[in-house]
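Blinded run. Sample ID left blank on purpose so nobody reads anything into the name before looking at the predicted structure. Input follows.
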Amino acid sequence: MDLMTSGSALRPRPLFSVVAAVYNVERYLPEFIASVEGQSLDQRQIEVVVVDDGSTDGSLALLEAWARRQPALVKVVTKANGGQASARNLGLEHATGTWVTFSDPDDIFDRDYFRAGERFAAAHPEVEIMGARIIVLDEALGRRVEHTRARQYDAGPRVVDLRDEPNVFPGGTNLCSFRLDRIKSAGLRFDARLRPTFEDVHFTARFVLGLPEPIVGIVPTMGYIYRKRATNDSTLQRAWSHPGRFTDVLELGHLDLLERARSADGSIRAWVQQLVIYDLSWYISEDEKPQSLVRIDPSVLDRFHELFRRVCGLLDPAVVRAHTVRAMEPRWSDLLAHGCRGEPWHSSRAEQTKVDPEMRLRRIVYRFVGDGPVDAFTADGRSIEPSFAKTRSCVYFDRTFMSERIAWLPVDVDLELRLDGQPIPIGPPASGSVRSPRERAQSAIRTRDAAWLGRLAYRGARLALARGLARLPLWRSYRDAWVLMDRMDDAGDNAERLFEHLRAERPDVNAWFVVERDTPAWNRLRPAYGGRLVARGSLRWAMLMLRSSWLISSHADRGVVEPPQITSVGLRRTWKLAFLGHGVTQIDLSRWLNTKDFDFIATTTPDERRSMVEDGTPYGYTAREVRQTGMPRFDRLLALGRAVDPGARDLILISPTWRKWFAASVDIESGNRGIDPAVWDSDYLTNWLAVVRSTEVAAAASRRGWQVGFMPHPVFQALLPSLEVPPYVQRLSFDDDVQGYFARAALVVTDYSSVAFDAAALDRPIVYFQFDRDAFFGGGHIGDRGYFDYDRDGFGPVATTAAEAIRAIVASIESGPRTTAEFQARIDRTFIQQDGRACARVVGAIEELSREYVTTSGR
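Blinded prediction complete.
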C-alpha cells in the first residue's frame, strides 16, 4: 500500500479526531471543509484525518490544498481504492484525539457540533460514546426533513441505558463520537467484508457490546447534517443492487451481532434485536414500493432467503411488537415475527382497515402462516358469510411468506370472529410510532424547524379558507359530484371517454372534468363543456373535490388520486376512488395498486380480473372493487375500428413502451418524467431504430402501399424531434387522435405495452419485439411478471432480436391486414364483451358501489 501523509504538526492531544473516508466527492468537499473550519469550538481541539480512497476526480487535490492551508488541523492519507471500511481503519491508525468520529465527507457538521460534545463529555465523564442528532438534507426536496429516529432526541441531552430503552441507539459511526482509547484497547476495527452497508452500525454496536454496561449519551445539540443526494449515487442509495446487501450484511452483520448479543441464559439483548429489526424493515418497505430499487441477483436469491429466515428466526416476536423507531405496518411486524419460523400461526387480533358508509360494509383483515385457520363470522349472534372475501399472498423478494385474509362484512351489527373456534378481537390497525400533529409541532419548536412551522401555519390558513368557501352558493352545485380526470395536464383517455358518455347519456349524474388550465386538453375541451370543465388547482376545484363522492381516473399518480393541496391541509377526503386504468393490466402491478386503496377497478378481460381477485394472488382487492366492465375508451375504439375496411388499413404502427431505467427526474405529484441522456447510446434506441430504419420493412410496406409510423410511449415522446429516421417514417404523437391510428393500423409492432390489447380488440395483427425481456422483468421496470405469457397468450409472434423482429414484420405485411387463425383464437378467448357498452357497465358498477349492499338473501 502506498501511504503518504501531509500536514503533520506537533501539538497537544486534540479533544476530537474526525476520520473521513473520501472517494469522488469533489463537489461536496467545500461545504464539508467549511463546516469544520466554522466550528465554535477552538480549532486547536480538533484534528481531521482524511483518507482518500483512490478518488478519480479532484477530491485529493482539494484535500491536499486544505492541508497546506491548515497543517495543524488536517492530515491527508492516501491509499488505493478498497472501500469505506478499509479507509476508515487506516484513518483510525492516524487519529490521536480523546474522542473520534467517522464523518462522511458529503455531510455537514452543525456549527456547535463539537462545542456541544465538549460540554456533554465534561458533564458526563462516565460516558464513552456520544450520539449526535441526525438532520436529513434532502437535495431533491431542497430542504431538511425529519429522520425516523427523531423522537429519541426530543427529551434533550441525556444518558441512556439501552437495557431500559432498547429502541434508542446513538447511530452509525458518522453520528457517534467514541472514546479512542476504548477502541484501541479493544482492537476494534471496521469489518471490511461488510459491504455495501451496515459496517458503521456493526462497529457502533460492537463498541457498545464491549462496554461494561450499555450506557450511551444522546446529544441532540450535536447537529449532524446528513445529505440525501438528489443524484441517488451515494453508497447507501446504490446499495439495493449490490449482492452484499442480500448476503454479507445479513450474515456478517445481522447474524454476527445477534450471536454476539446472546446473554448467559441464551436470550438476545433487546436493543441489538431492535437494531436488526430496524434495518430489516427497510428491506421490506423498499421491496413493497411500486418502483422498488431492490435488485437481487438470481445467483444469491436462495442464499438471501436462507439468511433472511435465519435472522428472523432469532428475533423475539415480543421484541418485534415493541419496535417504535419506525411506523411499522402490522404486516411488516408479522413477517419479521412469524413469517420465517416455519410454524403455523395466525393473528391474535383482526384489523378493521376500512369502512364503506355507502355500502354499509367494513373490511376485516387477519394474517396467517401455513394452511390457515377456519374462520367463522357472526353478526348479532347469527352466522354470516362475508359479502366479499379473498386470501392474498404476501409476497416479498419473489417468495410468499404468509397470507392475508380479507373479508367485507356489515357495519351495523355486533360482529364476532372465531379462528379455529377461538374468539379473536377486532380492532383498528396498530398505529406504530406515528406522531400526532401536536407532537410534530412540539418537536419542530424544540429543533427550530422554521420551515415545518411555516408549512403548518400555511396549512391552517388554507383550512380556514376552505371552511369559509363552504358557505358559498356554488358549494351546493357540487354536491355528490363525480370528478373525472385523466392526467393532471392531459386528457383523451378513459376518463374523458366516460365523461362524454355521462354528458350524453346520463345527465342526471353530476359529472365534472378536471385538467390544468391552458393546456392543450383544456383548450380543446373548453368549447364543448364550458363550466363543466374545472381547472385543477383553482378554488373551484378545491370546492369540487371537497363535495365530490367519486374521483374517477385513468391514472393513479399522487396528484390525481390524493392531491396534496387538499389532503395535506388536514381536510378529510370525502371521495371514493375509481381506477379506469390506462390499458389492460398484463403484468403484476400489485405493489403499485395496493398502495392506492381503490374502491373500484375496471378490468377488461377475464384473466385480468382473475389475476386481481382470485385467492393466492398478491393484490389486496376483492370482487367488491374489481369488476369486468371493459375500458370506456374501447367503446369509441371499436366504433372507429369497425368503420375502417381491411382494404383501407394502411399504417404500420411501431409503438414501444418506455423503460424506467431511462426515466429521470420523476415528478411525484404528476408522475411526469424526464429522460436520462443515456438513452441516446442505449440498446433500447439502437434496437428500435434498427426496426424503424429497416429497408426490408420499408420495401415490404411500399409494395403494399402502407405507411410506417413511429409512436414511442408518452414518457419518450420528447425524443421524437431529434431522432434520425427515414423521411417516409411518420413521427406520431400521443397528442393526436391515437385511436384513429389504431383504427387505420394494418399491423402494430410493440414490446410489452398494453397497446397490443388495443390492437387485438380490433383484430389487428401484432408483432412483439422483446430484446431486453430479462432486464424488463428482472426488476428493472415497474411491475413484475404477471399472468400474461407473451409466448403462450400473446396475439402475435415474439421476436428477441432486431433481425427476428424485421422478419416477423415483413411476413405479417406480406400476409395482409388480418390476424392468423391461431392468434385470432387467442383474441376471441380474451375479449368477450365487444359490444361497445363498457361506459354503461362502468357507470352501473360505480352506482352499485354507491348504495347499500344487499345480498341475494336480503342482507
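Unblinding after everyone has recorded impressions. The longest strand covers residues 215-228.
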